[in-house]
Amino acid sequence: MVVYREGKGGDAMADPATADRPAGRGGLLVVDDEPFLRDAVATSLRFLGFEVTTADTGAGALRLARDRPFDLVVLDVMLPDTDGFDVVRRLREDGCQVPVIFLTARDTQADKVAGLTIGGDDYMTKPFGLEELAARVRTVLRRTRPAAAAAGPVLRFAGIELDQDSYEVRRGGHLVDLSPTEFRLLRYLMPNPGRVLTRAQMLAHVWDYDFGGSSTVVTTYVAYLRRKLARYGPDVIHTQRAVGYSLRLPRPGDPADPGDPADPEDPADPEDPARPGDPGGPR
Fold first, then answer.
1. The pTM is what?
2. pLDDT single digits (tens) 116-131
3. Which of 27, 145, 157, 217 has its CA 20 to 30 A from that of 234?
């Protein structure tokens, strides 16, 4: 199946790096005219294993949705050429029943009812957390396209098991008590073993895409997570200096990962009720 990426002017172009993937999944369509938000949403969903196509207009979304079967559309309501509600009306008139999650700054009850009435499956108001959007995408897919889910509820790596439904993490059979932020951080790392994720990417996904805080908060929470996981096995969070972090097994000859120079030696977890405090930023 050919996967698409956005080219100049909102055109869709084949991505040769993924053109040989097997057929059977339509992937996701993300439609928003704000470049930063569109890219942040698309990138976060790709890191979770979804194949993502983007568009920046209602006309582009209609053209793409008519050309290929998508598993789900993430659709901004306020587009430059038409509104998302009209896009869905026209798709439904064409007989296309693709699930839709609306994104919008409109937060009135009337707008929400209108979106759901015309055929939307969910409705999120801006600003929103990328982690919450990813969870809603998985929920809608489990309900409407069970075979399209990128991963089951349990993610596994190096003896670590993360259950997305029960919000439990175990390593080697031991329950690892993680805070909500640590859980989201690990859930972001686990589908991408061996891939270096930048601090900016982590900040955008685990916190909010419009969070204005420093990337220091990422360094701090990685230190918390690393310490808790290392109680039951080798350190699997590798620091790529001046870039970010990756989840991988230690390699022969690897020196002990010194971590980031800014990592505290024994940080107090601000989400541990026994240790109050907060390094900054929403959780």
1. 0.56
2. 888 899 999 988 888 8
3. 217
> What 3-state DSSP class applies to 96?
coil
75 in helix, strand or coil? strand
The first and second tokens of residue 235, run together, are 């350190």
CA distance 224 to 176: 12
Query: Which pair of structure tokens corresponds to residue 244?
Result: 């970010």
DSSP letter for each residue of 146-174 = GGG-SS-SEEEETTEEEETTTTEEEETTE
Say which CATH topology domain 4-148 has: Rossmann fold (3.40.50)
Only one residue has tokens 């073993």, namely: 193
pLDDT at 236 over 70: yes
Architecture of domain 154-247: Orthogonal Bundle (1.10)
* Residue type (1 letter), 212: G
Q: Which helix (H) or strand (E) holds 101?
A: strand 100-104
pLDDT digits (tens, 9 = 90+) for 242-253: 889 999 988 776
Spell out the alpha helix ranges (H) of the chain: 35-47, 58-67, 84-93, 109-117, 130-144, 180-189, 199-206, 216-229
151 burial type by CB count under 10 A (0-12 exposed, 13-18 middle, 19+ buried): middle
Where exactly are the structural domains of the chain?
4-148, 154-247
- Selected residue with higher pLDDT from 5 and 49: 49
